[in-house]
Design a protein that fits this description.
single chain, alpha/beta, six-stranded parallel β-sheet, about 40% helix, binds thiamine diphosphate, binds magnesium ion
Length: about 575
């Protein structure tokens, strides 16, 4: 071959390559075209190069230590942004690790897409024992809103468009997207590839409530003697903050925020009935639910907690099937929360009659009484600490730093923090959600700061932290402004349980006096052992000021805490004596 011919050959190949694209690139382009900026992932076959290329192409790739945490991060990214959070995993075990988070997203109505690489269809379907063989699509289906598989590179655009639309439209939820290994390497004509990409237009179209339903709701609301508004996390998700605030204030009605609805209006707002929960549930006669479901968290809308007064429920929700799920809904308003509240605002006018003064007085005096009762307990400086001493400190820190996000999980660590720490802005409190699961902590913390650019304070039970604790390495590696406070009472619920049958520790007990702060030092973070509220205050303020990854081991009295926190009544009981 002549020199000229030798030279010409690579050039021809290069021109050929220019006219071709592949699965790797098409997936990245399809995601970018639809505004995806971040992937939460754990690398491995067949997605390692995909993640490398994504990073090279300008996507932010957060590489985790375990897929469940990457999945929880993606799920809360969806809640915070109204865009589907994306988690990417390897096949079989990685997929299964991510699946818990996908089911969690679906249950909590967070838009999320779990993208998993998978083994070859031919081999999986004949069950011939492929590397990480598993029929992932079939397994994912019952746990999510929709599940899709893409087999051909030219279908990647459609596959990703369908996944995005399914995740965010209507009631949001989890979507599974199955991408077999061979797809990534499939090569097609570059122009054809480009043409096959789909930009999703109006992914979550407004769903306008019918005028009749709005009128019916306002008629019932107006007829109330003791009205109550309950704000759920659906209301927070909607990002209709001004409209919701204006509706609540125009009505003058007491409102009760659900855990992740806290901060839509400040917990210190004159109409907030958070500290008078039992009173308002028992005594109200008309209850308007805005993006809140009558599930176990609201005692299904019936029974002792709801008192003996007859109730009328008005429910605002995007999902028609939610209506009458537990009790009769006399005024269902079906639509997206933003559109529904806007319609209520328009129809109620500016002269809405104030609720009866005696009802407002009942609520506010109960609230003020409970707040006053709690106040001295929050100021104690006991060492070792109790929950109230430690949480009193954190309450003040959140008041001074209302822009920070608060991540919260545990049993006592959750229930007491929820009650004690006031929130001032929407979508600042993120926690265990509908299932009350442990393990969301570090994944949520990572996504919270990555998605919002704000610092994060995590309030963690020592057990709760253990479920995602290894991600402190991820927090240090990406140098994220996350301050973790572990309310360490040496165990699940408390650290005083005794096993009388053998030398083994009781099942709820952990190593006594464990020093969690030393763990983060292994990765270059700041570790602090705090034994009093004063030490805790100093350490948290320093961490929030510096933005350095910090883990504070807050030493609690092992006797502090009660079985299952506030929900001990859910433990099954038998008439037979316990052994
Ligand atoms: C995934 C999962 N596994 C187990 C549980 C059961 N559970 C509920 S709370 C809890 C831990 C409570 O202990 P801790 O986090 O230390 O909080 P504390 O009450 O001691 O403050 C556990 C294991 C759960 N909710 N979720
Ligand atoms: Mg504990």
């Amino acid at each position: 071959m002549s020199d000229a011919a030798l030279k010409a050959k690579p050039d021809a190949a290069a021109t050929d390559e220019q006219n071709l694209t592949d699965g790797f690139n098409l997936i990245i382009e399809a995601l970018k075209l639809n505004g995806v900026k971040t992937l939460y992932a754990v690398p491995g076959i067949p997605i390692t190069d995909f993640l490398r290329m994504s990073q090279a192409e300008g996507l932010r790739v957060l590489s985790f230590r375990h897929e469940q945490n990457a999945g929880y991060a993606a799920s809360i990214a969806g809640f915070l942004t109204k865009q589907p959070g994306i988690c990417v995993t390897v096949s079989a075990p990685g997929f299964l690790n991510g699946l818990t988070a996908l089911a969690h997203a679906t249950t909590n109505c967070f838009p999320m897409i779990l993208i998993s690489g998978s083994s070859e269809r031919e081999v999986v379907d004949l069950q011939q024992g492929d590397y990480e063989e598993m029929d992932q699509l079939a397994i994912a289906k019952p746990l999510c809103k929709a599940a899709y598989r893409v087999l051909h590179a030219q279908d990647i655009g459609i596959g990703i468009a369908r996944a995005i639309r399914a995740a965010v439209s209507g009631r949001p939820g989890g979507v599974y997207l199955d991408l077999p290994a061979k797809l990534f390497g499939q090569v097609i004509d570059a122009d054809k590839g480009k043409m096959s990409l789909v930009k999703v237009i109006d992914a979550a179209p407004a769903q306008i409530p019918s005028p009749d339903s709005v009128k019916r709701a306002l008629d019932v609301f107006k007829s109330a003697k003791r009205p109550l508004i309950i704000l759920g996390k659906g209301a927070a998700y909607a990002q209709a903050d001004d409209a919701i605030r204006s509706f609540v204030e125009k009505s003058g009605v007491p409102f009760l925020p659900m855990s992740m609805g806290k901060g839509l209006l400040p917990d210190t707002h004159p109409q907030c009935a958070g500290a008078a929960r039992s009173t308002v549930l028992a005594q109200s006669d008309v209850v308007m639910l805005i993006g809140a479901r009558l599930n176990w968290l609201l005692s299904h809308g019936k029974g002792k907690a709801w008192g003996t007064e007859p109730k009328k429920f008005i429910q605002i929700d995007i999902e028609p099937k939610e209506m009458d799920s537990n009790v009769e809904i006399v005024a269902p308003v079906v639509g997206d929360i933003g559109s529904c509240v806007a319609a209520l605002n328009a129809a109620m006018g500016n002269n809405w009659p104030a609720p009866a003064a005696d009802w407002i007085k009942t609520v506010t005096s109960k609230r003020d009484e409970n707040v006053a009762k709690m106040a001295p307990r929050l100021m104690n400086n006991n060492s070792p600490m109790d929950y109230h001493g430690a949480l009193g400190v954190l309450k003040n820190i959140v008041k001074e730093r209302p822009d920070a996000l608060l991540v919260n999980e545990g049993a006592n660590a959750l229930d007491l923090a929820r009650g004690i720490i006031d929130m001032y802005k929407p979508r600042k409190r993120i926690d265990v959600g509908t299932w009350g699961i442990m393990g969301i902590g570090m994944g949520y913390a990572i996504a919270a700061t990555v998605e919002t650019g704000k610092p994060v304070l995590c309030v963690e039970g020592d057990s709760a932290f253990g479920f995602s604790g290894m991600e402190i390495e991820t927090i240090c590696r990406y140098n994220l402004p996350v301050c973790i406070v572990i309310l360490n009472n040496d165990g699940i619920y408390r650290g005083t349980d005794v096993n009388k049958a053998s030398a083994d520790p009781a099942v709820t007990m952990f190593v006594k006096g464990a020093r969690y702060d030393k763990m983060i030092e292994a990765f270059g973070g700041v570790g602090v052992n705090a034994t009093s509220p004063d030490e805790l205050r100093r350490a948290v303020n320093e961490a929030m000021d510096s933005g350095k990854p910090t883990l504070i081991n807050a030493v609690l009295d092992p006797a502090a805490g009660s079985e299952s926190g506030r929900i001990g009544n859910l433990n099954p009981q038998s008439k037979l004596k316990k052994k």
